[in-house]
Amino acid sequence: MDDFPLKKETNESNLIPFWPYDWFLNLLIYSNIWVAMAIASLGIFTQRTLEFESNWQPIALIFAAALIPYNLDRIFDSYVQIIPDNKAQLFFRRPQVWGLLLAAISATIVLLYIAPSRVRYVSCAGIIPLLYGIPLLPWEGNSGLRWYRLKDIPGSKAWIVGSILTYAVIILPLAYAGAKFDSQVALVTLFMFVFIVTNSHTFDIRDLESDREKGVITVPIILGIKGTKILLATMNILMLLIIVGAWLTHTLAFHPEMIVAVGVNLGYVWAVSLNTPRLVYSIWIEACLSIPLLVDWAIAITTQ
Question: Exposure pattern of 192-208 as b/e (b: 16+ CB <10 Å)?
């Protein structure tokens, strides 16, 4: 018997994709391919912003590597911290997800094997996202011994996710290009970190009740939803002011897509609530991670 049985109204036939929308959910959303593509787009944006030569290998590595911790975390969540979306909960109990995980791991191994040695070196940090959702830390409490995950550290969940993703989308293109970490890279890293962390904290608003029930203390639980929104808005405005200062001093080339990205961040941060449907997060807010690249492409096309 499962530790966390599914609700009675949920059955496996719900996952059979009769309509295009069902295909979309199962093939892209629940599989985390959608979010992995969005994250990989930030790697392309890094290449374009820092004027690196176009290279598919870091983008493919970011995409494949992103699938591993996202799916591992959701698999463990389906047993440790039940997923409120019944279809998603059932999806991660199915054996097919292990095939996707194996494919992602295989692709990552191949890409690392053919990569320059400096890429393999910086990729050692990839062990952190692999451990993110796995119960590894024993702690003796009033109710006995309990095993904690990295994301169970109070207030750390979104910061860890944001830091890992920022590292990947900046350092991997940098390593493949053989470039040095200079002031321009630091400014783009600042933009990426705030942009990604804002997205991650917004998902903690979505997961507030399930996190509270499981004892995972996130920023929305500590500050409340309104306090979290104020924190994220302040971070985005301060980051944009620093970027504008860099533009004015010619430390960094002007990139209007950063302004658009901050505007989008502020828009959805203030729009979401506990009543926002989960699929709005999984489809539209995840897709917002692609905004910098989409705007960059749009500008490039219109100015040709």
Answer: bbbbbbbbbbbbbbbbb
